[in-house]
Amino acid sequence: MNSDHDAMSALARSFPALHVASGLAPWRPEELEQWACGPVPGSGALHAARFVLSVWNSHADWECGRFDAVRALGAWDQAHRAAFLAWAARPWWP
Fold first, then answer.
1. What is the span of the domain harbouring residue 73?
2. Residue 94 within any structural domain of the chain
3. Fewer CB within 10 Å, N side or C side of the chain?
4. Cis peptide, bond prior to residue 29, ω within 30 of zero
């Protein structure tokens, strides 16, 4: 496993709603996308998946939609906002 994949898995797991998501261990963005397109457990999970996928590849046309920070911050609870803000304070990309 390479460190980019480990880092992406850790980022995804920092969002509580993604703890049950597919494609996190090992990191498989296509599986996460498929999970996000299905009956996910609420809009917070969908926004979290979109965010993580956008960090992985912001140029991809993800089937589950593009990440929108304003909508996500409005939908997320404190734990999800904290996960996003932790990344935003020290952003990184694989």
1. 3-89
2. no
3. N
4. no
